[in-house]
Design a protein that fits this description.
Blueprint: H1 2-26, E1 31-33, E2 44-48, E3 52-57, E4 62-66, H2 75-101, H3 112-149, E5 159-161, H4 163-183
Antiparallel strand pairs: 1-2, 1-5, 2-3, 3-4
Length: about 210
């Protein structure tokens, strides 16, 4: 029962992490304009994401523009897109695989060992998906930080971490943690010992001696 509860908790955490990865990928706030310079502009806030750039006016109105050409984008942005999309697809595959191996499901009930292995395999895919999202968000955040501290970057064009990065980091951590819990449900191999040989029993004495 304890392993079943750990398995269920791992699946829930990994599923929430997968949902967070989708939300992070769709959010336009991967980086936001920094107003750390002398000229503070509060009339609008600029955001850039993986798919579009947005500007929020002081009135609360948001205007977004989708990137025109894929070939004109930076290689970092294209790689980040690919990793996040791969993480989403891997998470979707992991959900179907892990559901088959869950103890609360009736699939493959006749072979419990294979059923548990399916859950473990789903956990491994969840971990890979979380690592892909973690690499993507960390790589993107590293480029934002390097450009921010670059002395040749104009002050009015510097960006800071957006909320989508923090959502991505949290989601990747949940996916990795949930996948690890699923992997902990792997059945342990029991050591098999050869059957012990019994000593031959002496035949009961009948009290008669034969010559």
């Amino acid at each position: 029962m304890a392993s079943g509860g750990l398995q269920l908790m791992g699946f829930v955490l990994a599923f929430l992490g997968w949902i967070g990865i989708i939300i992070s990928t769709a959010m336009p706030q991967w980086k936001m304009a920094s107003y750390a310079g002398d000229n503070i502009v509060t009339a609008q806030a600029l955001y850039e994401g993986l798919w579009m750039s947005c500007a929020m006016q002081s009135t609360g109105q948001i205007q977004c523009k989708v990137y025109d050409s894929l070939l004109k984008l930076e290689s970092t942005l294209q790689a980040t897109r690919a990793l996040m999309v791969a993480a989403i697809l891997l998470g979707l595959i992991a959900i179907f695989v892990a559901v088959i191996g869950m103890k609360c499901m009736k699939c493959m009930e006749d072979d419990q060992v294979k059923k548990m292995r399916m859950a473990v395999f789903g956990g491994v895919i969840f971990i890979i998906a979380g690592l892909a999202a973690l690499v993507a968000t960390s790589w993107y955040g590293n480029r934002v930080a390097r450009a921010f501290y670059d002395p040749y970057t104009p002050v009015n064009t510097r960006f800071e971490f957006g909320s989508a990065l923090f959502v991505g980091w949290a989601a990747a951590s949940l996916a990795i943690l949930g996948g690890s819990f699923l992997c902990c449900s792997c059945p342990r191999r029991e050591t098999s010992y050869p059957p012990s040989r019994g000593y031959p029993k002496n035949a009961p004495s009948t009290g008669k001696d034969y010559v």
